[in-house]
Amino acid sequence: MAYQKVNADQRAPGHSQYLDNDDLQATALDLEWDMEKELEEPGFDQFQLNSAENQNLENSETADLNLDPIQPATSPKGRFQRLQEESDYVTHYTRSAPKSNPRNFCRLLKIFCTAIILFISGILIGYYSHKNCPSNATSSGTLDLHLYQEILKTIQGEDIKKSFRNLVQLYKSEDDMDISKKIKTQWTSLGLEDVQLVNYSVLLNLPGLSPSSVTLSSSGQCFHPNGQPCSEEARKWSSQDLLYSYAAYSANGILEAEVIDVSYGNADDLKRIKKMKNVTNQIALLKLGKLPLLYKLSLLEKTGFGGVLLYIDPCDLPKTANLSYNTFMVSLNPGGDPSTPGYPSIDGSFRQHRSNLTSLLVQPISASLVAKLISLPKDRTTNGACSPLELPNNEERIVNMKIQTVTKFETVTNVVGYLKGVTFPDRYVIVGSHHHTAHSYNRQEWASSTAVITAFIRALMLRVKRGWRPDRTIVFCSWGGTAFGNIGSYEWGEDFRKVLQRNVVAYISLHSPVRGNSSLHSVASPSLQQLVAEKNKFNCPRRDQCPKTNISSEQIQDDADYFINHLGVPTVRFTYEDIKTLEGPSFLSEALFPKHATKIEEMDPFFNLHETITKLSGEVILQIANEPVLPFNALDIALEVQNSLKGDQTTTPQLLALASRLRESAELFQSDEMRPANDPKERDPMRVRMLNDLLQDMEKSFLVQHAPPGFYRNILYHLDGKTSQFSILLEAWEHCKSLASNETLQEALSEVLNSINAAQVYFKAGLDVFESVLVGKN
């Protein structure tokens, strides 16, 4: 049954809730509860006091006081008023005029005097309580909003720009430990307490002494990955870029074979190609994008390919991004230290020596080299339209690819700082950025990320020095080893897994604040999308000129991975992107370009975009860290589940029925528990704590045991912003079409069914617990 709040505290103006003692409160609740039980007794629905003849004589004295009409009963369950009534339920009761009955004058005088005394006493009590106790006239929400704005107004783009330039200069040091120490020193100087360096010895796959090469067998021409001919002169030019044009954790060796164009490498592409050619131990020419790279490589490996030449089609990139001659790096590591899969790299841990994570020889190459391999002219535009790169089916290209990498243990360092909360110090809001690890790659991106998190710390600590602290602990993290597979964040997460499972309430990512300058792109868990939509208005004060809010729950390539997929933590990330990037294929961000490819200051010369990202992220952080009730929306999760099942060819009646029950439970949870807890007059500390514990663990039900390589285990996240179906069901359906068996599809359906059922049971159990607590109190 739906409810809405009513004010059960009929206090005189100025009366404060602090004045009520425990006995008075208990008595009031008992009286309210007794009244409700009376109203719910059989036969009471037909009772009306519209006639003086039906009035009990015992009520005559009370009637003389000319009481207001009786209000619907309230109860300790939350003081709600019914919105949906049964047809035979009387919704309004009025008392009839009292009978004229002669009274003793003295009796009337006593009643009158008593009323006057009580009235005067009430005025005096109200006056002094108003004078001595804080007024509730201004809502706590308004006060918090003013506080947040005071903190955030000190953030300025010019300060972020200065910090960014200092960090870029700091890049002269190639040592991860040196950079980490300087970040720690800076955070400590701003006043952040308990800043730590957390080190892990991990297995890194690094380039060899000489760059990889691709040689055309027909002509003997040798090329480096950037398309330049192999020569001493070319090797000296931008040698670091050439060395780091590689796939970390690829297999090593030499392979000479035919190049077969597999386009984006999805199941349909491979099915078509297998009908045409023998692909065993051949070299696939593969475009990056549309699907996770690890998934596409797993398909190629199963199909029988021996090597992969990986590239980005220029037609998939914004026109402003001229990356035809740029080489790039990718990591084939799904996450964490490959030598300690699933457990932390601490002293004494068993180490597996895994120099490669695939049997394929994988080499990233530039689009200009692809054009040379397939003998295409330089100008590939037709009537202004870009022509995608494609190897003709009737032509054969034999190439020799040589890959040489080295594997060794190195130290990866995380910088972790704490701002302890005052009310819930054991609940953590984690804010994550990353710092430089890979030689010469993403220098400006990591500097942008670190400058933004440092700007927010600076603004926050100015307020902390004046005596304020958040309710929950805020943990600031600068991760190391991101380029090699989010190693730093994974190892820290595995190291503190038990604590984090219990204590983390949200993760805010500052991984890539500015990748373009035309569109604000927000990624958020379903439970946080409503909050993010509200904060997006900060960036657009005039609603009539606001662009459509771009918010989605989609896979992202950054250090939030562990928290989303292994801990089920609600996550938010704001990023400025190029609109062309958003419209193009997803997963292009898996490529890491060299230092000169991403020019942050050209995209955001005054750092206004950085300022906006910092303030948007900062307000979300402050609200999650400071609100008594976590600003998560349970119903939005249920709605997301239902939307993910709409139009899906694999959906079964059982799934739809279970999703409907999940929505009903979520609606009841939202109505019975969330709404009263958000009213300061209704809050009970124990109930709020129980409610927050339920809210922070809602997404854990949606972590599936098995997901295809590169796919999120958290099924609430889609492959990209253009698809709404569950990603594991989409993949299983594609897999089923190419095979006679539907076993994979049945397994995926079972995973989704069990997740939805677990979430429904979770909400139901939560409601039962709250009901049990109420019964115990009464």
Automatic annotation (TrEMBL):
Cited CDD domains: M28_PMSA_TfR_like
Subcellular location: Membrane
InterPro entries recorded: PA_dom_sf, Peptidase_M28, Peptidase_M28B, TFR-like_dimer_dom_sf
Keyword Repeat annotated: no
The keyword Zinc-finger appears for this protein: no
GO cellular component, one term: membrane
Keyword entries, A-Z: Signal-anchor, Transmembrane
Membrane topology type: Single-pass type II membrane protein
Listed SUPFAM superfamilies: PA domain (SSF52025), Transferrin receptor-like dimerisation domain (SSF47672), Zn-dependent exopeptidases (SSF53187)
PANTHER family: INACTIVE N-ACETYLATED-ALPHA-LINKED ACIDIC DIPEPTIDASE-LIKE PROTEIN 2 (PTHR10404:SF32), N-ACETYLATED-ALPHA-LINKED ACIDIC DIPEPTIDASE (PTHR10404)
Protein's name according to its UniProt entry: N-acetylated alpha-linked acidic dipeptidase like 2
Native organism: Bos taurus
Higher taxonomy: Eukaryota, Metazoa, Chordata, Craniata, Vertebrata
Encoding gene, per UniProt annotation: NAALADL2
